[in-house]
Amino acid sequence: MARMARLGWVCVAAGVLGLASAILLLVVEPAVAPDRFSYPFTPGGFAAAQVWFFVHHFGLLAGLYGLWRSGAVGRSWFGRIGAWGAIAGMGLLTVAELVAISGAESAHPSPRTDVIESVYGVASILIGLSLVVAGLAVIRTGRWQVWGRVVPLILGVYVFVPLTPALFSSYVFARLAIGGWMLGFAFLGWALVKTARDTATTSGQAPALEPSR
């Protein structure tokens, strides 16, 4: 249970910091024109920000790993594919944050930034579809109660509405939508923490049911 709680707290922190990062990107004074891929930062500042996002995403990965380890998706292939698909998608998104540095000095749009954004797109769709599958599994197993049981499904659906449309609308709407998604991950982390606490209380620190390997 201690490990589950730690994974949950890491995800909570990542969600809150992700929301703060989105807000920072909205209020920071732009150093370059909007037609530069590094906007609002200089190429050097953009590279530093991308390294931060790379590190930050490991906190989101902790939450997705915790979702699988909690047993909330059940033992079926359906739930396991959903959980591991989300982890794989987030892993690809994490790598994409470093790949994006290669376009720091590029105009936007350009052939290079098109390729970079396609990687982001594939990763995001994989995360969204996988979390929808995992979220349905969580609801079906019923091991998470009340609000927690719908959080993974909401995180998956959110990728398609409103996140994807916002990414194609404007810089401001995109940052707001990303911030909202990060807040959702904070709720996922809190669901893990609450599950760990409730299980410890009701079972006297008995280990949580985990999916078979």
Could you name the key traits of this structure?
213 residues; mainly alpha; Rhopdopsin 7-helix transmembrane proteins; elongated; 0% strand
Short description:
This protein is an all-alpha fold and 213 residues long. It has helices spanning 2-27, 43-69, 77-99, 111-141, 151-167, 171-203.
Structure description:
The protein is built from 6 helices and no strands. The radius of gyration is 18 Å and the shape is elongated. The chain has a single domain, classed as Rhopdopsin 7-helix transmembrane proteins (Up-down Bundle), CATH 1.20.1070. The protein is 74% helix and 0% strand. Helix 2 (43-69) packs parallel to helix 6, helix 3 (77-99) packs antiparallel against helix 4 (111-141) and helix 4 (111-141) packs antiparallel against helix 5 (151-167). The longest helix has 33 residues, at 171-203. With 213 residues, the protein is mostly helical. The model is unreliable at 205-210 (pLDDT under 50).
Percent helix range: over 70%
- Under CATH at level 1, the class stands as Mainly Alpha
As residue ranges, the low-confidence spans are: 205-210
Gap between N and C termini:
19 Å
What is the fold's blueprint, element by element?
Blueprint: H1 2-27, H2 43-69, H3 77-99, H4 111-141, H5 151-167, H6 171-203
